[in-house]
Amino acid sequence: MRILVVGGGTAGTIVANNLARRLSAETRRGKARITMLSASDRHMYQPGLLYVAFGQMTPDQLYRDQASLLESNIDFHVDPVTEFMLDQNKVRTQSGKVHEYDTLVIATGSRMVPEEIPGMNEGAEFFYTEASAVKLYKKLREFQGGKVAVAVGVPHKCPIAPVEVMFSLHDYFKARGIRDKVHLKYHYPINRIHTIENVAKWAKPEFDRIGVEYETLFNIKEVDGKNKLLKSEEGTEYQYDLLIVIPQHRGMEVVEQNKLGPGGWIPTDRYSLKMNGHDNVYVVGDTTNLPVSKTGSAAHFQAEVIAENIASIVKVGEPVRDYDGKVYCFIEAGHDRATYAMFNYQNPPDLKPPSKPMHWFKLSYNQMYWTSVRGLL
């Protein structure tokens, strides 16, 4: 069986490594072949971007050489896919090479699209790329006081990020001794402060405790950078001195260009993780249109299901398990405390009071990630 993994992020890397170990005998005998096509020779630890924005990590700490993270029986190429020919079981890459497959795994991820809101690119700060996180860090260091607005577009990667950034801002300005000179205001698009109801119920009193003002039903319409005005579709506006936005995301351009799914999100069966209408194509991580968080943990749990099923098909001809919607998110709650949200399709999260041990566990995961992405954890 020729297995092709497109995308070398968290999801694609875990799928490929998991398969490589499960099918080690089959790859030695030539019964299976695993190929990965990636757009980069470097692998980024994306959750670390928020740490970069607050000066807690430097950009070089976010990266490892992609080849070093892969099992030796994976055929790895830095040659991104430009064309999906699903009806022919083929893809074409940037170099012009055509790869044929029996089973395809699409793990192309997602991207922020601040350019879709007038003025946002010019008037706001972000932390979803290395360059934007470094720029935000410099802005925060220069900031001496005033109104800091945080606004949220949907959908976006890491749904907990808007809440975490508020705690991080509070702690950062407190450590600098200027918290009393900073007014923090949070803007969220629905009528509570987080999409996940139990997270919203937990976060609201926490925001009150640290003095964060919040406005719900605020969908970003425009950013007037010249006058420093944040405007909503609902007709309200807020004057800021520093604007930080969690911008709307879309799937990657190649997915949209190949018309695999609206907005770059590929229609995916919520249990089998197969692309709708294509029995030999799996979709994993941010690329799916599933009603679950776009996080590394969701990608991890999905990747394990896909790898186990593909390996089982190679060995016995049938898959063995379904994805249950499992997600696990750490939530930094400020002052060296953290909690977590664990949930699936059937069960909403039940948040526990934040604690220091959970904070240290989250920090240790920054290093454990590299073991995790190799599929060893």
Q: What do you see in this structure?
A:
The protein is an alpha/beta fold. The strands form 7 sheets. The chain has a 5-stranded parallel sheet, with helices on one face. The protein has a 4-stranded parallel sheet with strand order 13-12-11-17. The chain has a 3-stranded antiparallel sheet with strand order 6-7-8, with no helix packed on it. The longest helix has 21 residues, at 296-316. The protein is 30% helix and 25% strand. Helix 1 packs parallel to helix 9. The chain has 2 domains: 2-109 and 252-326, FAD/NAD(P)-binding domain, CATH 3.50.50.60; 113-248, FAD/NAD(P)-binding domain, CATH 3.50.50.60. It starts with a strand and ends in a 5-residue tail after the last helix. Strand 15 and strand 16 (237-239) form a beta hairpin.
Give a concise summary.
Helices cover 30% and strands 25% of the residues. By secondary structure, it is α/β, with parallel strands linked by helices.
Explain the layout of strands and helices.
Layout: E1 2-6, H1 10-22, H2 24-29, E2 33-38, E3 42-44, H3 48-53, E4 63-65, E5 74-78, E6 81-85, E7 90-93, E8 98-100, E9 103-106, E10 110-112, H4 120-123, H5 130-142, E11 146-152, H6 161-175, E12 182-187, H7 197-210, E13 212-215, E14 220-224, E15 229-232, E16 237-239, E17 242-246, E18 249-251, H8 253-257, E19 281-283, H9 296-316, E20 327-334, E21 337-343, H10 356-372
Parallel strand pairs: 1-2, 1-9, 2-5, 9-19, 11-12, 11-17, 12-13
Antiparallel strand pairs: 3-4, 6-7, 7-8, 10-18, 14-15, 15-16, 20-21
